[in-house]
């Protein structure tokens, strides 16, 4: 498009000419040129042309020009207001976005399904649930609560603000739902920890004949990864295959992650090898998968293959590599990778990389080096970093350093009960029961509760959930009888309950009894009862598996000749023949 500044137009110029010219603009300079010609041609009074100019300014994020034009417009309609509200929202200028919306209401303009979704999305992006609820009230008063686009925006807003109950209530009330709304709701449920609800929604979608696209399937795959169910992972993969979904970079990478988090690292690698295109995220996902399956050397072996494929690593790749090293005890390899980040690949280490290094050194017992690394950091420290140090202090029973790390943690996250519990456990291991009592009293005064431990096992497509000391399961009596039988065999095999992991100031006999009622043990006992001999037992736990349970499961895998796969909060453990894939390094 070329348009000299001296060109003159008369009022007879067809407005479609200016609209066509605006659509062909590639930069702000060209837009301003056309704007000048519109003014010279006297066509700015044409509302359609003015709105299109307003839209093009907003599209190019030239909100100063757009606002000046908007303020000078003698006539405005709902499109004009929508463009301004949406324009401010897209550049994250939430103050002007909300102020423009307020002015829109004050002017007596009738609310519509064009303007409202923009301001609702601004609430979503700002995570402003207070303003979101106010807008929702306005929607109800205007009678637009039955509009599909407005309702979909509200569901999205509540979901992104993590108010899942309100999002689900709105979703269920919608007379019709588009694919985007289904996708948002599935993803929101998974993100909030309600992966079972995500799966139910997926089943409902299929039942209602909704045609899914790749974006929707990414949300379904993500939810399945959260569930950790290998059965459902295979169902999803079968659905993708039957419906001829192309495993592109995004969907293929999600499937790799799903299989890895459902305990099948071989299936994850198979998908990885079959992908026609792989980017840095795909490679990083496969490296990470080996990392949390405790196969650090395989993770490191992928790195030169990635480089030979002419894919350069990014910060996520190095987080995955360093994590793999820290969970496999590959200290020297981790140190070399950390040094090479900036020197060889111009990737500047951030706090996540330092956290991996603190974890790596800390697990290896090199606490002094971990502390020196923290002190030498030029990037801002966060709770993850201090949490890694505190975890290392727990492993190596360094109470003094633990107190320092805990102090920094509690300053940053005083409402996180996990920090108090970890410090309390360190005190308990050291026999400092008065300090344990002080921590528990502090938690009580701050109204903090310990996160309860749960273990899940899937048998015949049904999830069975156990807590410590649980007796609510229909087969509870059989489960405890199985534990008694196991305890007799385990003692002969050399298993001795480690009461250091029963962190209550009670008699030794009571401690042993408590240990045998840990949720992991209950789930495994049920698995032995409810599954055929020789089949794998897969359990999932929301917290880190304790040291005594780890020893218990190793011995059970030997005497029962079962493979037992445990997914805890940090990683996978594959137990077979009395040994664990982590080599007791976790």
TrEMBL record:
PROSITE patterns: PPR
Keywords for the protein's UniProt record, in alphabetical order: Repeat
Transferase among keywords: no
PPR repeats mapped onto the chain: 147-177, 178-212, 248-278, 279-313, 350-380
Entry annotated with the keyword Isomerase: no
GO biological processes: chloroplast RNA processing; RNA modification
UniProt cross-references to InterPro entries, sorted A to Z: DYW_dom, E_motif, PPR_At4g14850-like_plant, PPR_rpt, TPR-like_helical_dom_sf
Domain called DYW: residue spans: 494-586
GO molecular function: RNA binding; zinc ion binding
PANTHER family listed in its UniProt record: PENTATRICOPEPTIDE REPEAT-CONTAINING PROTEIN (PTHR47926)
Family: Belongs to the PPR family. PCMP-H subfamily.
Protein name in the entry: DYW domain-containing protein
Organism: Citrus clementina (Clementine)
Lineage: Eukaryota, Viridiplantae, Streptophyta, Embryophyta, Tracheophyta
């Amino acid at each position: 498009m070329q348009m000299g500044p001296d060109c003159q137009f008369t009022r007879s110029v067809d407005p479609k000419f200016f609209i066509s010219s605006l659509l062909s603009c590639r930069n702000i300079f060209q837009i301003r040129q056309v704007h000048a010609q519109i003014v010279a041609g006297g066509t700015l009074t044409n509302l359609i042309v003015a709105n299109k100019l307003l839209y093009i300014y907003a599209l190019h994020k030239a909100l100063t020009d757009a606002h000046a034009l908007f303020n000078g417009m003698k006539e405005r309609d709902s499109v004009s207001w929508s463009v301004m509200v949406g324009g401010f929202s897209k550049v994250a200028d939430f103050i002007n976005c909300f102020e423009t919306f307020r002015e829109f209401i004050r002017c007596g303009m009738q609310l519509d399904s064009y303007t409202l979704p923009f301001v609702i999305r601004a609430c979503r992006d700002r995570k402003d649930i207070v303003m979101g609820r106010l807008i929702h009230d306005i929607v109800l008063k205007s009678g637009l609560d039955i509009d599909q686009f407005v309702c979909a925006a509200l569901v999205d807003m509540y979901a992104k603000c993590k108010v899942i109950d309100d999002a689900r209530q709105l979703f269920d009330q919608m007379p019709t739902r588009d694919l985007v709304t289904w996708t948002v709701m599935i993803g929101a449920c998974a993100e909030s920890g309600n992966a079972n609800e995500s799966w139910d929604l997926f089943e409902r979608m299929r039942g209602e004949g909704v045609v899914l696209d790749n974006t929707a399937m990414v949300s379904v795959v993500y939810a399945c990864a959260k569930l950790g169910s290998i059965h459902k992972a295979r169902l999803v993969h079968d659905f993708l295959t039957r419906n001829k979904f192309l495993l592109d970079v995004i969907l293929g990478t999600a499937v790799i992650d799903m299989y890895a988090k459902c305990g099948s690292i071989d299936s994850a690698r198979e998908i990885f090898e079959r992908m026609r295109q792989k980017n840095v995220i795909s490679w990083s996902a496969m490296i990470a998968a080996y990392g949390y399956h405790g196969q650090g050397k395989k993770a490191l072996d992928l790195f030169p293959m990635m480089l030979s494929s002419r894919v350069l690593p990014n910060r996520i790749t190095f987080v995955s590599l360093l994590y793999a090293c820290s969970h496999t005890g590959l200290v020297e390899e981790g140190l070399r990778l950390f040094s090479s980040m900036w020197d060889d690949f111009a990737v500047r280490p951030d706090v996540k990389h330092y956290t991996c290094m603190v974890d790596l050194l800390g697990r290896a017992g090199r606490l002094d080096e971990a502390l020196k690394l923290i002190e030498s950091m030029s990037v801002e420290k966060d709770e993850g970093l201090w949490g890694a140090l505190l975890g290392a202090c727990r492993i190596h029973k360094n109470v003094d350093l633990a107190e320092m790390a805990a102090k920094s943690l509690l300053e940053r996250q005083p409402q996180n009960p996990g920090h108090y519990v970890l410090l309390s456990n360190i005190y308990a291991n050291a026999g400092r029961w008065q300090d344990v009592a002080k921590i528990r009293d502090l938690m009580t005064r701050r109204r903090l509760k310990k996160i309860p431990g749960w273990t899940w096992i899937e048998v015949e497509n049904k999830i069975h959930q156990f807590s410590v000391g649980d007796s609510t399961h229909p087969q509870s009596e059989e489960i405890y009888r199985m534990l008694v039988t196991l305890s007799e065999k385990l003692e002969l095999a050399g298993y001795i309950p480690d009461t250091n992991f029963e962190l209550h100031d009670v008699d030794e006999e009571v401690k042993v009894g408590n240990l045998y009622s840990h949720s992991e043990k209950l789930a495994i006992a049920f698995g032995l009862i409810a599954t055929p001999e020789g089949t794998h037992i897969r359990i999932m736990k929301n917290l880190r598996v304790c040291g005594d349970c780890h020893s218990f499961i190793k011995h059970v895998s030997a005497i029962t000749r079962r493979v037992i796969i445990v997914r805890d909060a940090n990683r996978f453990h594959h137990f077979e023949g009395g040994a664990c894939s982590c080599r007791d390094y976790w």
